[in-house]
Amino acid sequence: MNFEMRIGMGGILKAFVLCSLMCGGAFAGTLPTPQSDILLTVEGDIANTNTEGRAEFDMALLQTLPTVTIRTNTIWTEGVQEFRGVQLSDLLEAVGAQGDMIYATAVNDYAIEIPVTDGVDGGPIIAYQQNGQEMSVRTQGPLWLVYPYDSNADYQSEVIYSRSIWQLVRMEITD
User: Fold this and answer.
1) Cβ–Cβ contacts within 10 Å for residue 116, how many?
2) Total domain count for the chain?
3) Residue 44 has what DSSP assignment?
4) E strands, the chain, where?
5) I need a labelling partner for 73 at 20 to 30 A (CA). Which of 3, 28, 116, 145 fits?
6) Cβ count within 10 A of residue 16
């Protein structure tokens, strides 16, 4: 039985991503190719791509990046919510973001500028689960940029709330 058969293709993808992250801090120019529906496209000033000048992510590829869980209240939900996803900082590192600003766009064409400096450890995540369930477009998903609002009073402002884009589908990294 060869290595691929024992761990399966999903395991190979995770092993590739983990090795890429640990062996130099980022992917070496080319990201793995998504195998299902594209949830997020990242383009602009990035070094690592998987299609013509872009980095496209399906759920499986997003889930190969380090996963974090935050528990926080939001102004849009009742009570403490648990969000699981990828830290913005880890996604920016994976694509080799080199700009200063993120122009984020939602399914409904809502767009907002987010400074790359928001992507810090313990900062916002690109959530793909809420309370243990994958999010649909109807429930602010499938991707929602969520800040840990309860962890820092600076995250409880209109500016940050406006950056908390749900139904996120596209990010362009610019100078």
Assistant:
1) 18
2) 1
3) E
4) 40-44, 54-57, 67-72, 81-87, 101-106, 111-115, 125-130, 133-134, 144-146, 168-174
5) 116
6) 14
Pull the structure tokens for residue 35. 């195998």
What is the Cα–Cα distance from 6 to 140, expressed in whole angstroms?
37
Q: Which of 147, 172, 169, 18 lies closest to 72, judged by CA?
A: 147
Domain that holds residue 84: 3-174
Rounded to two decimals, the pTM is 0.83
Would you place residue 10 in the very low, low, confident or very high pLDDT band (cuts 50, 70, 90)? Answer: very low
Integer Cα distance of 105 and 74 in angstroms: 20
Cα separations in angstroms, 135 against 1, 30, 39, 167:
37, 28, 12, 9
How many beta carbons lie within 10 A of that of residue 14, not counting itself? 18
**Could you count the other beta carbons within 10 Å of the beta carbon of residue 172?**
19
We report the CATH number of the domain holding residue 42 as 3.90.420.10
